User: Which sequence fits this backbone?
């Protein structure tokens, strides 16, 4: 089954409106929780008047920070503890200031509006420059200033290498702030009915959430049940520990009734954490062929008003991936995480790696431009060769697994008809009536398969492994319980394919369950492209052990030696004796008949495996984008988008293509459409989908997808992961194409998003 | 996304709707397709005390040829305008504009009267009706009156209707066989126009040019029209597109970019005529 493009098991329910999302769940006596959000970016709270709100019929109460003073703080970096609601001051527009609970959502919304918060304004520092200015005041109280973290990632000093290089150039690249905007925003329903709460939540790691809730409430973990039902997209933004994960259970406990919180879209845009928001200062040394000899990078990250424990250190991952798929002998990297009066930033699809890929791919194009060489040729002289794999990067522990980067680029150039495009580009340049043509390349590599444990522990997880329990039912059908918690990835389908191959059971006879800590053994979760490389291997391992046991039982039933029994169609057969067969269903039933089993056989056909990857995996590939630019309006239209991806073993080409489409769509969105912006007072300017430009299907091109399958030796399946590859590859493929189309005007860079107006201004200023 | 409390009445006839309007005065808003009003209510940008639902008044959904005028009922959907044979033959500019509104679901629900009365300065149909020299028919307690489109839009999302008046019909001079153009520039395929141009060859010669997204109301590009009438070449006349306009300067687009777009789109519209 591995490699088959079978349709998704998930789709029948989801496409007919029968999915179960948090907001679909109802409990008797359900109450509704709504936040009062800060309207100010930086201010002292001088008073909160909730009298009117409390007096509205149907309102059960209004609570502020001091009402939760007894609750240990949210998961935070030690020393940077965060509470649940703003206390004495607010740090950004949208920060929760108070929480209202009412019998229905309308009353709760009315009551939230009736709460009067008095603010004493403080100076607003909505940008990194303002937050680091000499007259800046500290925003986040535990920190003496707004520089939350300054880290030298490598001890290398490359000054001498840069000075020795025949050529050098500098660039400042901006990776703008984006919002995750899953179709389903954040939601929590908590019902503390007995000794502990049951919490339905739109999360990516239910066991981790269970651990954090249990710890805050001083409960043993078995008393807390966390369920991630159908989750309508997450993209990393549902991995942050939002206050509602703890406030809803606490309020349910206090009120003795279930409490639901479901974010509105407007809240999502300011309350749920954003991603990216890096400024990168780069200096690169290179020789006459374009070989990159040394790279020096300083990354400045805007972490927002209340630093998130993941967001504050995310540029570590950016630093690790700075070399891209190139043999760069010397890399020096450092980053600064800066607090500003904006919504916090944390993980968003790719979480730190797209920023690195964008940087190095833009730099390689700048090098090519500087030397007057073709960007494809400069890539070729720098690519790590297949015989150098596994490749030790300049960063300790960062070792790329098997891949053939040159083959991916060659396949891409062939599919693009690169030479033909260059000829067409020249022809159009000579014709003032023709729109400009640009071609952009992106040879990328990123990290997937998050684990192993020593790395993943640093993000607060119990481990970097994943778990799977494979259990044959007495009729030979199979239930798989897996520790991941997917939100669109199609694990019911792909993991069933893996189990089917091991067990020799039809795909249709396998159900994959996940997302409920009361049902699933300890698990880690879904993030960091770890589904197939980690959970896939756990399923494979658990199923293999069950298959081996089934074979011994079959051998017993066939009165043969286990070594002589081979799997056939729907069961087993004695090698060379076609009449001596037994079906798997019969074997499965036999597994529950102790008196008919060999002495000492453990009852049932079931196994739980925990798979720990040897290392991270490194999905890679080459993407190419062809754009057309309207000379009059500056509008960029994508004519073609061609993907060559190497995610190792492809489990299901259909779902793999879906992952690429979605990732590339978000990458194109970043390149051309989306940006979270604030005015000088820290007020969000893109706080709705009217202003935050999520592109729709009509705005996006068809994608041409191709695969190279270089199996990773880091895990038995050979899979590398694919969930973040598209979002990692696409922004620079598009921007390189835009800059390429304008290069004849002397244009060197166009900042994202390359909106029509921005492109028009660049053209206007250049000509 | 949670609207404030409101009461709801469904009007069974135009008379009932007028009675309800008179009874509730300024507290009431008329609900037609609901595609502008309901989102505004969910965002609490609008908090009407009463919604008078006129969406089922089928008597206001029609397209009729009436001599040299075409009469369009206020509750005619965008989708109908897009497909109606009379519209296609007599006022094809209206169909061209309707086709560019949102997606098909929106066009099935949205109505011409609702769109015009909402008076969004970037509304596609407003540009078309303005370029067509349409006349809007209002019914109120004191009877029926006609308001020329040029006088109907009084400000951003403001119109010339009195509180107790209901827009019932749009009358458009038939323009069979005369050329027209509708050019729209939007950030995303389904977005409102950043800037749009509706152009219509007039019966007596000359061209009417209306702009959307170039000020607090849709406007006629008078300077362009006059220049064209004086025989100025189209490309040169287009340079006057933004003259007299006060385009918004906001996160969607700067005022100067809008002015540039107006010129580009007028040039394109002239070329398409």
Assistant:
């Amino acid at each position: 089954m591995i490699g088959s493009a079978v349709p998704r098991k998930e789709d029948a329910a989801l496409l007919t409106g029968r999915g179960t999302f948090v907001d679909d769940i109802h409990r008797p006596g359900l109450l509704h929780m709504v936040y009062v959000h800060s309207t100010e970016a930086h201010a002292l709270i001088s008073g909160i008047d909730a009298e009117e709100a409390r007096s509205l019929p149907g309102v059960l109460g209004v609570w502020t920070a001091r009402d939760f003073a007894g609750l240990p703080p949210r998961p935070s970096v030690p020393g940077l503890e965060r509470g649940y609601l703003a206390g004495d001051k607010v740090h950004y527009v949208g920060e929760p200031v108070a929480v209202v609970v009412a019998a229905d959502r309308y009353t709760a919304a009315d009551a939230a509006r009736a709460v009067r918060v008095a603010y004493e304004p403080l100076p607003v520092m909505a940008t990194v420059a303002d937050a680091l200015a000499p007259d800046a005041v500290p925003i986040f109280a535990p920190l003496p200033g707004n520089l939350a973290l300054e880290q030298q990632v490598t001890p290398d000093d490359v000054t001498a290498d840069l000075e020795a290089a025949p050529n050098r150039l500098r660039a400042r690249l901006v990776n703008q702030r984006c919002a995750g905007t899953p179709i389903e925003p954040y939601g929590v329903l908590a019902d503390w009915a007995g000794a502990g709460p049951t919490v339905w939540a739109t999360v990516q790691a239910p066991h981790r959430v269970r651990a954090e809730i249990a710890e805050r409430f001083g409960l043993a973990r078995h008393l807390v049940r966390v369920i991630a039902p159908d989750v309508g997209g997450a993209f990393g933004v549902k991995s942050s520990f939002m206050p509602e994960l703890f406030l809803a259970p606490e309020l349910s406990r206090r009120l003795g009734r279930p409490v639901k919180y479901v974010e509105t879209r407007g809240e999502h845009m300011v309350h749920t954490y954003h991603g990216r928001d890096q400024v990168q200062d780069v200096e690169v040394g290179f020789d006459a062929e374009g070989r990159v000899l040394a790279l020096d990078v300083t990354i400045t990250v805007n972490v927002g008003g209340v630093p998130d424990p993941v967001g504050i250190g995310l540029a570590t991952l950016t630093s690790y991936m700075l070399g891209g798929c190139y043999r760069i002998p010397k890399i020096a990297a450092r980053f600064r995480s800066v607090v500003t009066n904006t919504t916090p930033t944390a993980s968003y699809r790719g979480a730190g790696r797209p920023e690195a890929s964008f940087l190095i791919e833009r730099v390689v194009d700048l090098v090519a431009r500087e030397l007057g060489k073709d960007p494809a040729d400069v890539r070729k002289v720098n690519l790590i060769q297949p015989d150098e794999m596994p490749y030790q990067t300049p960063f300790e522990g960062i070792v790329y697994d098997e891949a053939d980067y040159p083959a991916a680029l060659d396949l891409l150039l062939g599919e693009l008809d690169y030479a033909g495009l260059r000829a067409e580009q020249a022809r159009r340049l000579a014709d003032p009536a023709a729109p400009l043509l640009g071609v952009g390349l992106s040879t990328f590599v990123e990290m997937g398969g998050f684990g192993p444990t020593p790395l993943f522990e640093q993000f607060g997880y119990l481990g970097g492994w994943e778990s799977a329990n494979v259990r044959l039912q007495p009729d030979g059908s199979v239930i798989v319980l897996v520790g991941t918690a997917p939100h669109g990835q199609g694990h019911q389908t792909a993991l069933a394919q893996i189990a089917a191959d091991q067990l020799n059971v039809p795909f249709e006879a396998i159900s994959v369950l996940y997302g409920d800590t009361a049902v699933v053994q300890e698990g880690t979760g879904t993030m960091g492209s770890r589904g197939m490389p980690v959970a896939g291997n756990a399923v494979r391992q658990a199923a293999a052990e069950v298959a081996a046991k089934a074979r011994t039982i079959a051998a017993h039933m066939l009165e043969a030696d286990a070594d002589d029994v081979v799997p056939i169609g729907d069961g087993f057969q004695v090698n060379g004796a076609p009449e001596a067969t037994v079906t798997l269903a019969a074997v499965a039933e036999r597994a529950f008949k102790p008196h008919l089993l060999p002495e000492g056989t453990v009852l049932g056909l079931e196994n739980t495996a925990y798979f720990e990857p040897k290392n991270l995996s490194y999905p890679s590939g080459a993407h190419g984008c062809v754009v057309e630019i309207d000379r009059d309006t500056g509008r960029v239209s994508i004519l073609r988008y061609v993907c060559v991806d190497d995610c190792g073993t492809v489990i299901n080409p259909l779902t793999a293509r879906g992952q690429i489409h979605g990732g590339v769509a978000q990458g194109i969105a970043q390149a051309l459409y989306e940006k979270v912006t604030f005015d000088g007072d820290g007020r969000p300017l893109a706080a709705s989908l009217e202003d935050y430009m999520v592109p729709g299907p009509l705005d996006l091109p068809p994608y041409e997808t191709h695969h190279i399958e270089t199996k990773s030796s880091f895990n038995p399946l050979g899979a590398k992961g694919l969930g973040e590859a598209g979002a990692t590859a696409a922004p620079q493929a598009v921007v390189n194409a835009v800059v390429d189309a304008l290069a004849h005007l002397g244009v060197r860079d166009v900042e994202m998003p390359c909106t029509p107006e921005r492109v028009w201004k660049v053209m206007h200023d250049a000509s | 996304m949670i609207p404030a409390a409101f009461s709801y009445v469904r009007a069974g006839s135009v008379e009932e709707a007028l009675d309800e309007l008179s009874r509730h005065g300024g507290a009431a808003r008329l609900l037609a397709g609901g595609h502008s009003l309901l989102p505004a209510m969910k965002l609490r940008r609008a908090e009407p005390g009463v919604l008078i639902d006129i969406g089922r008044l089928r008597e206001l959904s029609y397209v009729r040829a009436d001599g040299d005028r075409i009469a369009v009922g206020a509750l005619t959907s965008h989708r109908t305008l897009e497909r109606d044979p009379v519209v296609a033959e007599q006022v094809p500019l209206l169909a061209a504009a309707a086709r560019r509104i949102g997606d098909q679901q929106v066009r099935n629900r949205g109505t011409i009267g609702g769109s015009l009365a909402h008076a969004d300065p970037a509304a596609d149909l407003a540009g078309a009706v303005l370029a067509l020299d349409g006349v809007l028919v209002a019914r109120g307690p004191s009877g029926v009156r006609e308001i020329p489109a040029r006088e109907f839009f009084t400000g951003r999302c403001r119109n010339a209707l009195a509180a107790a008046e209901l827009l019932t019909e749009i009358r458009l001079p038939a323009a069979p066989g005369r050329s027209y153009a509708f050019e729209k520039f939007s950030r995303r395929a389904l977005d409102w126009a950043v800037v749009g141009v509706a152009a219509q060859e007039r019966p007596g010669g000359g061209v009417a040019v209306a702009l959307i997204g170039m000020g607090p109301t849709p406007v006629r590009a008078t300077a362009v029209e006059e220049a064209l009438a004086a025989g100025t070449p189209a490309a040169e006349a287009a340079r006057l597109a933004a003259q007299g306009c006060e385009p918004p300067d906001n996160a969607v687009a700067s005022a100067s970019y809008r002015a540039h777009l107006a010129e580009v789109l007028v040039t394109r519209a002239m070329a398409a005529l």
Observations:
- The longest helix of chain B spans residues 255-272.
- The radius of gyration of chain B is 18 Å.
- Chain B has a mean pLDDT of 96.
- Residues 58-173 of chain B form a domain with the Uridine Diphospho-n-acetylenolpyruvylglucosamine Reductase; domain 3 fold (CATH 3.30.465.10).
